[in-house]
Write a structure and sequence with these properties.
single chain, mainly alpha, three-stranded antiparallel sheet, 7 strands
Length: about 325
């Protein structure tokens, strides 16, 4: 708890969760799977485990970049899932023993069933992604086979269900497909199966069998059910391991927030030094960023006419312009 960076009320709530324990009648129940508290507590308990591999490599603290400017990521962790990248000269058994000692102080241990040592050229799955290093040294990231199968089963259950019509099916499919594509938007989605062409074709056949649908209406419903999402391989913005939204470093979080936006929004944020064009405060991830047209003409998208402001500031500017019935 001493290493937790958060306001006092949040720290008190987390402390109560830790002190509450589990129900004595259901000791194996723990926190619910997929809940918010489980990964939060895992991040607090495992904070600092990423530095074990770095300490073993150099024996001293190192920076995130080499002299040539290349970024180093010896380990990657998401909640209680972790991948450690080893070099040929590294001792995997020694690093694993250091991790065991780290976890033993916190009353935990490494799962032997889920621990695997493999060559990066053979590939491995992590968080629904498949990572593989090619012979030329480039890394290939694609959705894992298991992740794609689970996604395909969800789509098939909705498409083959006859309890509701094609319009309802399209409404149910759209958030699932959009969510799956957004999750994998930083993978290489150029493969034929990831285009979902066969799913589109099957869905169009099912929709077209309904007497009320024509070929054109079925095509429109399929486009609605399978919304497209652009992908960009490897452009995900990684958060530094020692950073927290509550650490007061507004410059870091506002600059990182700029990378989450594309096009004119990103340009406006850079021009304004990541500050709101109305109130002057830093634009962080706590509130959405809106583009405001200064002259009120939404067809005028020249850079001089656009300014990035907080969502609340944008609502305030347009508050007096709304016509009340």
């Amino acid at each position: 708890m001493d290493n937790l960076i958060a306001p006092k009320n949040i720290k008190n709530g987390i402390f109560r969760c830790l002190k509450a324990g589990v129900n004595p009648e259901f000791p194996e129940q723990g926190t619910p799977q997929g809940g918010v508290v489980s990964p939060l507590l895992a991040n607090i308990a495992l904070n600092g485990i990423e530095s074990i591999h770095r300490t073993h490599i150099t024996g001293r603290k190192i920076t995130d970049k080499t002299a040539e400017g290349q970024i180093l990521y010896p380990s990657v962790r998401y909640a209680d899932d972790m991948v450690i990248v080893l070099k040929p000269q590294d001792d995997a058994e020694l690093i694993l023993r250091n991790i065991d000692e780290f976890l033993a102080k916190r009353g935990m241990k490494v799962s032997a069933k889920k621990t695997k040592i493999t060559a990066a050229t053979n590939g491995f799955d992590f968080l629904g992604w498949h990572f593989k290093v090619r012979n030329d040294g480039r890394i290939l990231i694609t959705p894992s086979v298991d992740n794609f199968k689970k996604f395909r089963e969800k789509v098939k259950k909705i498409v083959n269900c006859w309890n509701y019509g094609s319009k309802v099916k399209a409404e149910k499919l759209a958030p699932i497909v959009r969510g799956w594509r957004n999750y994998h938007r930083y993978c290489d989605m150029s493969g034929s199966r990831f285009s979902l062409w066969f799913m589109n074709h099957k869905t169009h056949t099912v929709f077209n069998k309904e007497t009320r649908n024509t070929r054109e209406s079925s095509t429109a419903l399929v486009k609605k059910a399978f919304p497209s999402v652009p992908y960009s391989l490897g452009s995900h913005v990684i958060v530094k391991g020692d950073k927290s939204p509550y650490d007061g470093d507004l410059i870091y979080w506002s600059q990182r927030n700029r990378k989450l936006y594309d096009g004119m929004t990103s340009i406006a944020l850079h021009k304004q030094n990541h500050s709101c064009g109305r109130c002057g405060m830093k634009l962080t991830s706590e509130e959405h960023v809106h583009l405001h047209h200064i002259d009120g003409n939404h067809n005028n998208c020249k850079p001089k006419n656009l300014t990035a402001i907080h969502e609340s500031c944008h609502d305030y500017l347009h508050m007096n312009k709304r016509v009340t019935p």
